[in-house]
Amino acid sequence: MQSRNTGAESPIDTRFQLKRNRMLKAAAHCFNLKGYSGTSLKDVADILGLTDAALYYYVRNKEELVYLCYVRAADVGREAMQRAVAEGGNGLDTVQRYLRYHVEIMVGDRGPIAIMSEIPSLSRGHREAVLELSRSHSAAFEAILKRGMEDGSIETSDVRMTGNAIMGSLNWIPKWFHGDSAMASKIVEEFPRILSSGLRAA
Amino acid sequence: MQSRNTGAESPIDTRFQLKRNRMLKAAAHCFNLKGYSGTSLKDVADILGLTDAALYYYVRNKEELVYLCYVRAADVGREAMQRAVAEGGNGLDTVQRYLRYHVEIMVGDRGPIAIMSEIPSLSRGHREAVLELSRSHSAAFEAILKRGMEDGSIETSDVRMTGNAIMGSLNWIPKWFHGDSAMASKIVEEFPRILSSGLRAA
DNA sequence: GCATTATTTTAATCTTCATTAGAATTTTTT
DNA sequence: AAAAAATTCTAATGAAGATTAAAATAATGC
User: Fold this and answer.
1) Do B154 and A200 touch (CB under 8 A)?
2) Which of A13, A151, A198, B150 has its CA 20 to 30 A from that of A87?
3) Is the pTM of this model over 0.85?
4) What positions of strand D are covered by protein, i.e. any atom < 7 Å from a CB?
5) Percent of chain B at pLDDT above 70?
6) DSSP B72-115
7) Bigger pLDDT: B197 or B96?
């Protein structure tokens, strides 16, 4: 076979998938560090001990590489969201758990993969897809906020803006967190509290 | 004179300064939109109705262009900080005013200029300079937080992390705000409250 | 061990873009 | 309105880096 990067993958095919995932992680790392245009395929390939040309065995082109990073990043959010919602509790509890899970995944072994700042570099089709993922995630988050307002655990006058504020804080983490594990556990502890409880003394 | 982009500028020299500022604003806009490597000098020049080569009259090279954007961005933070501190009040009051001023400036006519995500693109010297600006700003913010803890208006267990959380939220604004003025006033209203008071119902 | 398939490399090609030199044009000064 | 200074343009140059085709190597099934 000339190239694997086109068709759907069989569920059995693990070697290819694993390598590709390692590749996505390396790519996300570079993108976080130097931006989309700022990272060359060679940067990514170097991390993996490959040639830049070898990457084309796993992805169609550079643009698809970011796109797949986004999809993985969106998974982080979705997974955190699902777990948080599944465990029940009032709105505030859910928000706090969501924040905790999101941060845990992001600073943990699978991340930081949430670049989320290279949207304009995407192709039209992929951009739409990513924006849709992003919208539905925001909507889910806002739904939790609304639920919290109804059950009396959350108080805020603009759900949309609140979502923006909190998501921004999360999205920014990859800009200053670079893998220090002591720092990681501190983030996991502190972020959910700060973002949900604010600064005001009781 | 062959080029103005080297020496220090005389205080009288306004035309040059004005044009250069317009240029920095255009550049910041592009950088926010497409990142450092993602924007070509032609992108910036097009906004100003100039040729890419003309930019070199105002700036030594592309790298200096981002650097100057950063310096301007840092000014926004510094100005907001100074005004907030100057007006006195307890720590929480000061934080809230700082957030308000920062947001006001950023979504207002002078902004959004706070890219703050292209540090790795800078030259060694400029990077140091920018990081120093950033550090001193963070320090000032943390000082306010500490003051708030002492006067009892603020409660938080990790000042550094709190600063990261809040600054991230502010820094992220340029990623989703693109000049809608109705949105702008809403941001100014809501952000300070959300970031300082959190979500928990009273 | 052989044939087949999977993976990676080498060696171009091609485009984009920063940068520069010098010429051309506009603005200011006198 | 001529001279000087300031500003912008045209037309290279050169390098970086994405992409491709074909060859080379490694892995797997028989």
Assistant:
1) yes
2) A198
3) no
4) 5-11, 16-22, 28
5) 87
6) HHHHHHHHHHHHHHHT---HHHHHHHHHHHHHHHHHSTT-S---
7) B96
